[in-house]
Amino acid sequence: xxxxxxxxxxxxxxxxxxxxxxxxxxxxxxxxxxxxxxxxxxxxxxxxxxxxxxxxxxxxxxxxxxxxxxxxxxxxxxxxxxxxxxxxxxxxxxxxxxxxxxxxxxxxxxxxxxxxxxxxxxxxxxxxxxxxxxxxxxxxxxxxxxxxxxxxxxxxxxxxxxxxxxxxxxxxxxxxxxxxxxxxxxxxxxxxxxxxxxxxxxxxxxxxxxxxxxxxxxxxxxxxxxxxxxxxxxxxxxxxxxxxxxxxxxxxxxxxxxxxxxxxxxxxxxxxxxxxxxxxxxxxxxxxxxxxxxxxxxxxxxxxxxxxxxxxxxxxxxxxxxxxxxxxxxxxxxxxxxxxxxxxxxxxxxxxxxxxxxxxxxxxxxxxxxxxxxxxxxxxxxxxxxxxxxxxxxxxxxxx
Length: 400
Fold this sequence. Notes:
By secondary structure, the protein is mostly helical. It has 16 helices and no strands. Belongs to the TMEM120 family.
C-alpha cells in the first residue's frame, strides 16, 4: 500500500503544487470573466458612440443652417462671432470623423462578398498603423518580384509554363491588393476617386490575360501526357495573337512595376515628412499616381508616369491591330485593348487634374518662372514684343 501512495514527503509536495495550481487557475477564470464583462461594456460604449456621432452630425448641420439664416442680417460684431462658431463646428466635425474611424463599422459590399460579415476594424491606432505598414511592405516586395519575373520572361520565352505562373501571380497580387485596400479604407485610409477603383480594373485585366493565355492547358496537360507530348506542349506558345503581344506585355509589366517601386520610395519619404509636420493623416498610403500632397521636387516622377500612360495607349493600339487581324479568333485582345484605353485615359485625366491643382497653389512668381521655362516662344521674341508694346520701359532698361 505504501508503494502505491509513494513517499509521504513527495505527496505533500504534490498536494501543495495542486493547491497552487487550483488557486492560479481560479484567478485566471476570474480574469477571463472580467475580460468578457469588459468586452461587453466596450461593445455597448461603441454602439453608444455611434449613436452620438450620428446625433452630433445632425446637430452641427442644423446649427450651420441656422447660422446661414442669421448671417445676412448680422452686425459686424456678430459676424465675427459667427466666424468663430463656424471654426468651432469644423473642429468638432473633424473630431467626430477621427472618432468614427476608431469605431467598428459595417463592411462595404466588396468585403461582404469576399469575407462575409467579419469585423475587420481595428480597435487601436497601433494595430491600424502596423497593418498599413504590412500593406506597404507587401506591395513593394511583390511588385519587385513580379518586375524581375517579367524581365526574366522577356528574355527566356521558351517555357510556357512560366507564363502561366506569371499570370496567376498577377491575378493573386491584384486580388490581394484590393482586399487589403478595402480593409485599410474600413480603418480610416483615404483612398478616393480614380485610385479607389484602379486596382479593380487591373484585376479584371489580369484575369482576362490569364484566360487568353489558356493556363489550364499548361497546368493540367492530361491529353498531351496521354500522347507523350507533354514536353512539346510546355514549350509551345498558346496562340499566335498571344505570342505577338507577349514580349511587349512582359516589358510593359517590368516597366510599370519599376515605376511603382520608384514612386513607393519617394512617396513614403514625402508622407513621413508630412505626418511629422501634422499635415497628413497617419493612415495615408502610397498610390500608383501623382498626388497633390507630393512635393514639387518630385515632379520628375511625372516623366516616368506619363511614359507609362503612353505605353498603355501603345498597348491598346497594338491589341486593336491584333484583334482586327484575320488570324485572331479570340475575344480577349479586344477586351484588353479597351481596358488599356480606359486605364490610360483615367490615369492621364487624374494626373493632369492634380498638376492643375498644384499649379493653382503656386505663387504668381513661381508660375511665371515655369511658364517662361516651358514656353514654346523664344525669349528674344518675347523681348521684341515687349519692346514694341512698351518702348519706354525698354529704353529705361537699356539706360540701366
